[in-house]
């Protein structure tokens, strides 16, 4: 079965649109590799975490910032499709 990405976000902080944008970016890039992207409202204030299945790939509190789309695509790619080229998202 293909992996599912979960984006857990704080609805009280107004981060749903940010999570939805990232979900769109991931679904566009990994349309053949992912089962789907789940947007999950968090009960924890300030939460913004991204998981592939149950593996945490990004945590806003740990990193002290939000992920860039390019960075998140690379992190998800490294877990779900390590050989996949991301075009311009692979360049620094």
Automatic annotation (TrEMBL):
UniProt cross-references to SUPFAM superfamilies, sorted A to Z: Thioredoxin-like
Alphabetically ordered keywords of this record: Redox-active center
Claim: DNA repair is one of the keywords in the record: no
Coiled coil start-end: none
Record Pfam families: Rdx (PF10262)
Xref: InterPro entries: Selenoprotein_Rdx-typ (IPR011893), Thioredoxin-like_sf (IPR036249)
Entry annotated with the keyword Calcium: no
Name of the protein in its database record: SelT/SelW/SelH family protein
Organism: Deminuibacter soli
